[in-house]
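Box S2. Input/output pair 1.
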Amino acid sequence: MQALNGKFWLRFKGDKVNIELGDFYSSFGFGMALALNRNVEVDIDTSLQGVRFKWSPGSWELEALAGQMNRQQVFQDNPNRGIFSDYRHFVGGLRLTRYGLGPGDLSIHGVVYNFAEKGGIGGGFEAMGTAPDLIVGGVNAQLYGVLGMDWGLEADIYGYPDAEGFTGEAGRIGYTMYASSTAYIGTTSWLFELRKYKDHQYANYV
């Protein structure tokens, strides 16, 4: 078990099973459905404080996670003083990945968000007991060496069944679509991206 600056973690790692308790970071696909990380450029460290389970039998991997967001101001290079107070939104996620499927990998994922309206741990537990504010489901693929390039594809659907206070309209539906290709020319790499989206921005509340 380890602890550092208000974050703690306990990890078990086996041949096929990994279990984590405490704080951890996670991203599904290209980060449109879920992206929790430490962003040193804006001095904000956002981890999920809860539990994560990974099962990796052969070329498959199943990841399940649940917990409260634990966002902190880290004051590294450029302190921000206008950050919101500690709203510990609830996040639950499930991801299934098949590696080595032809020239690439394929994943499906789903994420549930409950937005806390009060700060602190108590506000996070209150959010857990309510209907989901946001449900995201999607699929992503990564292809390697196809036509001499690497490719990334992702599509997600966003549903807001009980988020009228955040979107102005309960039941709103949004989506994101993403495609990228990376070409390697000499000692350089060139990344090309295409994005299309609608009503996904409300997820930025977290």
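Box S3. Input/output pair 2.
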Amino acid sequence: MKLKVNTSISLFLCLTLSGLVSCRPLEQTQASTTSPQPKQDSNQLFAVRQNGKLGYIDKTGKVVIAPKFDEVSDFSEGLARVKIGDRYGYIDQSGQIAIEPQFDDADDFSEGLAAVEIDEKLGYIDKMGKMAIAPQFDDAEDFSEGLAEVMIGDKWGYIDKAGETVISPQFSDTEHFSEGLAGVKIGDKWGYIDKTGKFVWNPTK
């Protein structure tokens, strides 16, 4: 998790109103100055803070999920990552616990799987909370186009949803796959690889 997953609150731009903190994703605020935003889901929920705890409101300002969490994230694939005490779990859009808080750290769901940390190793769970890929990695990222970036030692590579290594850890940094290509870094140079690990653009400065 290259961007520490428990920093979700820093992703919100918050304005204090009537004892609540009305929030929307910071990246949407930044982008709105340069390009139109896609139409938002009418069921979209927004994180708010009240008395030091976080919950969610709908677009009318109605509290849908009472503020009771120490950290929250946006909903992704129907679930949101939340922190209670020092453990992370997931809730559904009604606010019910879908996966009990039990993880040292956790990331959002992507392509049906989410990276979670147990005893300083990362693996992946499915949306039922079942461990799909055993914790074994030193760092891990979201799945994109069927592959996820994982780190073993200080090198990054890629695995598939079965947990099998597709591209062996050999890069000092990586990006997720998009349209069949991913940016990878070797030393101080970046290039592009395809899903077989073959360079389509050799690393350059």
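Caption for Box S3: The first helix runs from residue 26 to 31. The helical segments are 26-31.
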